[in-house]
Structures are given as C-alpha cells and as structure tokens.
Specification:
CATH topology: Lambda Exonuclease, Chain A
Number of helices: 10
CATH architecture: Alpha-Beta Complex
Distance between the termini: 51 Å
Order of helices and strands: HHHHHEHEHEEEHHEEH
Oligomer: single chain
Largest sheet: 5 strands, mixed
Number of domains: 1
Length: 262
C-alpha cells in the first residue's frame, strides 16, 4: 500500500542558487570535517572544481530523474583535434554558441546513457516511480545548520540516491560504504527529510551501477551496524562544525604523539 508522501509541489522550494548560498553542513562537508576541520576549510575553497566525473554524474542523474531537461542542459563536444588550427577554430565556434550548457565528449555521453538505462530498468523491476526528484532541503540538527539535495523520493516511501561505481557487487559496495561513508549520507538525508517534512521515510536506498559493460546495477540499503557508525560520525561532524562556526576553531590533526598499532 502506497504511503501519503510529500510531492515536489508540497516540498519547500529551494533553487540551486539559494541552496548553494546557505551556510550549512552537508554530507560532502561532513566527510571532510571528519578528516579534520582544517581539511573541511580547504575543501570549501576547492568545492567548485569541475571534472569529467562530475559532468558525467550530472548527466546520468538528469537522464534518470529529469530526462526532459537533458537537451536544455547538456551538449556534445565536437570531435576535433584542438592541436590543429582547424580544430581550434571549430572548438572556438562551439564554445561561443553552447551558452551555459555542460559539454561532454560523445563517448562520455554513451557511457552515461548506458548507466542511466540500467538504473531505469532497475527501478522498473522494483515497480517504483518517483513523486519528487532533485529537491534541496535545509534545517537544523542539534542547533547546527545542515542541508542536502536528495535525488528522489519514491512512491514506495523510500528515499533514493543514484551512484555510479567501479563495482556494484555486495562486497564492492560494502567497500564503497566504508570508503565514502555512504551510511553517513543515508542517515543525514533521512534526518533532514524527516525534520523538514514531518514524515519519516520508510528507508534509504542506493541504486548503484557500474561504469563499464555490462553496466550491472544493484540496490542497497544500509544495515544496522553501519547506521550505528553513522550516528557516531554525524554527532562528531556536527560538534566539529559547531566549534568551528561558534569559536572559529578549524584545527588539523593532533600534534601530540599517537601510538600506531598493527
């Protein structure tokens, strides 16, 4: 039985520009501050760095979540040798006319389309459709400002996040949870969603898809042991952010001697 859940029309409206302007702790920042507050401050300075991976991630998300926006937001780069005079001319004309669209190589777009199709088929096999996609939320947890952008809210009551990965097997994604603290993301997003909407989601699911053929995909939820680790990490990140914003304390690693055990 489907739950009565918020839709995109009932969720608070927050544009990408407004979201970016909010001074608050998000999941990516929390990962950095857990390394050290000084690393978090450095990350803030470098956050806007562009990369092929970010562009491909954005396109894949758009293909799955907002396919009607793809043509308006993305464009294929011309296949030309920019080391030659002719190639430089072709690319200069392309840049002058592509506006604010994100450009990708043809082969990158092919990979994104393959990954997106696999994710879409996975959702169909689950029988899930989305009532809201790509929505940003902000609130306070333990009197600290936090924010997140959630990929999707399913009509099954789960929050969903799309991940491209090298290995979407059980062991592969388990390693990714440790490496990227996806359990922290699941906990943080769930808490923010519940705080803002007053609705407790049924759970948080990741749709993980490999970036190479056969573009195999899997669906994962975070187990109880990972949830406990995330609770500890979130409390630690919130306290570090509080100390930094209130007292201006952004230290790096401790300078006292530490014994390293085997």
């Amino acid at each position: 039985m489907k739950q009565n859940l918020p839709t995109i029309s009932t969720l608070p409206k927050l544009s990408r520009q407004d979201y970016k302007a909010i001074a608050a702790l998000n999941y990516s920042g929390a990962k950095q501050i857990l390394k050290s507050p000084a690393h978090y401050q450095q990350w803030l300075k470098e956050e806007s760095t562009d990369s092929s991976a970010l562009r491909m991630g954005s396109l894949t998300h758009a293909m799955v979540l907002e396919p009607e926006t793809v043509n308006d937001r993305f464009i294929t780069r011309p296949d030309c040798d920019r080391r030659t005079t002719e190639g430089k001319k072709i690319y200069a004309e392309f840049e002058a006319n592509c506006g604010d669209k994100t450009s990708l190589k043809h082969e990158e777009i092919v990979v994104c389309a393959s990954v997106a199709n696999s994710m879409i088929q996975t959702l169909k096999s689950l029988g899930v459709s989305f009532s809201a996609v790509e929505f940003s939320l902000s609130c306070s947890l333990e009197d600290v400002a936090v924010k997140c952008t959630i990929d999707a809210l399913g009509d099954d009551g789960y929050l969903y996040d799309l991940k491209t990965t090298e290995d979407a097997s059980y062991s592969g994604f388990k390693s990714s949870i440790y490496k990227y603290k996806y359990n922290l993301q699941a906990l943080m997003y769930t808490k923010i969603f519940e705080k803002v909407t007053g609705v407790k989601p049924k759970g948080f699911r990741f749709i993980a898809c490999e970036k190479e053929g056969p573009y195999a995909a899997s669906v994962f939820e975070v187990g109880k042991s990972f949830e406990k680790l995330a609770e500890f990490d979130l409390a630690k990140a919130i306290e570090a952010y509080r100390q930094g914003t209130v007292h201006g304390l952004w230290p790096a690693y401790p300078t006292t001697p530490v014994v390293v055990e085997a």
